[in-house]
Write a structure and sequence with these properties.
Layout: H1 7-14, E1 16-19, E2 24-28, E3 31-34, H2 39-47, E4 58-60, H3 79-95, E5 98-99, H4 110-117, E6 125-128, E7 142-145, H5 148-157, E8 159-163, E9 166-173, H6 182-193, E10 201-206, H7 208-211, H8 215-223, E11 232-234, H9 239-245, H10 255-264, E12 277-282, E13 289-291, E14 299-301, H11 315-328, E15 343-346, H12 354-364, E16 373-376, H13 380-388, H14 391-397, E17 401-403, E18 423-426, E19 441-444, H15 447-456
Parallel strand pairs: 3-4, 3-6, 4-5, 6-7, 9-10, 9-12, 10-11, 15-16, 15-18, 16-17, 18-19
Antiparallel strand pairs: 1-2, 2-8, 13-14
Helix pairs in contact: 2-5, 6-8, 12-14, 12-15
């Protein structure tokens, strides 16, 4: 009888081309996703007079450098940024790669576009030159970010050398309370295991609380696996996955759908399979979360208080906490709900899908923004859907700014940044020093919590506003 295997092991073994004696494995790549930062890799191909090996398995869209005030490349003031947005279409067209370029309604953040188009499917091995490629694991794929030289290697060979990670299971049981989202779950997980808690591991999320999440919630969850140090994050495919994928543009059709379903249903981890590490959380204990420091692990309940470095277990952690508090301009013991915000950002590959926008609109409806607030949909199609549902009207009536799709203020390389000293409630994935601009103080929250901060001017327990 075959030994029970994890989902990660099943997918990894299907993609092995050769195992090397030094511990490296050559893997075959099913999907290569690219964004407007891929110009250097294309240039290296040109220098070597090489073509993309499998253009039919490669897909691209501009997201990092494209403006969210306008999608016309000619409106980009910085010539280098404008070049990156324009040249991705030129490069893809030259190599026969499908590109959802500026002006195409399918354009958007690559980690939103992939699932939305059905490019992301269970059992695939997917890579992209972006750390948040872990997002795609929400549909039962093995997906991880790669570096620029690795992007070139995949373009040229459709293969990649990797060391095999270990496997970790994160089990979240229990019923989530109203207003508690995938963002709150992942912040609670990272708060428990730390920003390095999953280094060297592929994380599989299991348990009743995970199964109850929508696909959008699972995408948020897996998106931030990298913030726990994980190589990838995964959720086993189930009926929620299949319903989401059905009739997507690139999903299998007809008899191929039946064949795919038979394969997909065999992917979940076998009973009795062992993991290298396991963590358990009680979903019913998870509250709306807010980060207070300069790492996603600096997370606590909105009902809590800013921690005191004196409570840390060791000197290194005490010093780290004090540096974070100094940068964030916070005092120990301050109730989270007394922390004011200067600005709000709702968007990013973590939280810019239609469910996220609906949740934010639920809080914004009938209220007024107290601080500048941006809402940036994850793709042109999501923007269209939100407008068809009247969500844009809700946001505008509340005084929120409704912008074009892109990464925007999450990373800010397109100029969408805060100003020094600003405190931003953000639905993005990173709160490092300077992440949203020099001297900007970032607090990570869910879309509902971000909208609540927008209309109250401070962090507010969103559960008080859900009627």
């Amino acid at each position: 009888m075959a030994e029970p295997r994890t989902m990660f092991e099943k997918i990894w073994q299907r993609h092995v081309v050769v195992d090397r004696d030094d511990g490296y494995t050559l893997l075959y790549i099913d999907r290569h996703l690219m964004h407007d930062g891929s110009a250097a890799a294309f240039a290296r191909l040109k220098e070597r007079d090489m073509k993309v090996r499998r253009p039919d398995r490669s897909f691209a869209t501009p997201d990092h450098y494209i403006l969210t005030s306008s999608h016309r490349p000619q409106d980009i003031a910085d010539p280098q940024q404008r070049h990156l947005v324009e040249v991705i279409k030129e490069n893809c067209d030259a190599h026969g790669v499908t590109v959802f370029a500026a002006g195409d309604p399918r354009q958007g953040i690559i980690h939103v576009v992939g699932p939305e188009q059905g490019l992301t499917q269970p059992g695939l091995l997917m890579v992209c030159g972006d750390s948040h490629t872990s997002t795609h694991g929400a549909l039962g794929a093995l997906a991880f970010g790669i570096g620029s030289s690795e992007v070139t290697h995949v373009m040229a060979t459709q293969c990649l050398w990797q060391r095999k990670p270990k496997a970790m299971r994160i089990n979240v049981e229990g019923r989530l309370g109203d207003g508690i989202t995938g963002k709150d779950i992942i912040l609670a997980i990272i708060g428990k295991i730390g920003a390095a808690g999953a280094v060297g591991h592929v994380m599989e999320y299991t348990g009743s609380a995970i199964r109850a999440l929508s696909m959008e919630g699972r995408l948020t969850l897996c998106n931030m696996s990298i913030e726990a140090g994980g190589r990838a994050g995964m959720v086993a495919p189930d009926d929620t996955t299949f319903a989401y994928l059905k009739d997507k543009p690139y999903a299998p059709k007809g008899a191929m759908w039946d064949t795919a379903m038979a394969f997909w249903k065999g992917l979940p981890t076998d009973p009795g399979a062992t993991f290298d590490h396991e963590v358990t959380l009680n979903g019913s204990d998870i509250a709306p979360m807010v980060t207070w420091g300069t790492s996603p692990e600096d997370a606590l309940s909105v009902t809590g208080r800013v921690p005191d470095p004196a409570s840390a277990a060791d000197q290194t952690r005490r010093e780290s906490m004090q540096r974070a508090l100094d940068y964030m301009d916070l005092k120990p013991g301050t109730p989270v709900e007394q922390i004011p915000v200067d600005r709000v950002f709702i968007g990013s590959c973590t939280n810019s899908r239609i469910e996220d926008l609906r949740m934010a609109a639920r809080i914004a409806r009938g209220r007024k923004a107290q601080v500048p607030t941006w809402v940036v949909a994850g793709s042109g199609l999501i923007k269209q859907q939100a407008e068809a549902e009247g969500l844009d009207k809700v946001f505008r009536e509340a005084g929120f700014e409704w912008r074009e799709p892109g990464c925007s203020m999450c990373i800010g390389v397109n100029g969408d940044t805060g100003v020094p000293g600003q405190r931003i409630a953000s639905t993005s994935n990173r709160n490092f020093v300077g992440r949203q601009g020099r001297g900007v103080r970032t607090h990570l929250v869910s879309p509902a919590m971000a909208a609540a901060a927008a209309v109250t001017g401070r962090f507010t327990d969103v559960r008080k506003m859900l009627g």
